[in-house]
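Re: that chain you flagged

S.,

Sorry for the slow reply, it's been a week of failed gels. I finally had a moment to sit down with the sequence you sent. For the record, here it is as I used it:
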Amino acid sequence: MDRLSHATRSRLEDLIAGDDGDQGDQGAVGGTAVVGGGRSHFAELKTDPGAPGLESLLAEVNKLERVRLLELPADLFADVSEKLVDAWRARASKEYPANLERMKPPRRLTLLATLCHVRQTETLTRWWTCSSSSCWRSTRGRSGRSTRSWGRS
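Prediction finished late last night. Pasting the structure tokens below so you have them in one place:
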């Protein structure tokens, strides 16, 4: 975890820190929004996207924006096997915040960074796949204007 800046480590730790109630991701650090959001954001990261629709699209956009604010290096897991990254992600998805808090920092940060990195990659891949396939379908409303909806045709 030497590749992570102190600020990124702190933001990762904030993912499992208890909620401060009024701060959440509304606060600011150096002019940017606080990424943590506490346990609710960690739980949100672990969830899979729902059925295709505007709500799930907006939820995925929100997750992606929050993960990007962590500023994880693009090559963070470049020298790690895909199997190992998948195993770390699976473990992070099964852990409760309290269990992660009890872990030593290197293990905790590795699992949190893996979850965030894989989620970011999955979200971008899902968007690319759907945008180049039939996930978006055009329909005509009563006004005769073409509208776009999220879903399989």
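What I noticed first: The longest strand covers residues 136-140.

Talk soon,
D.
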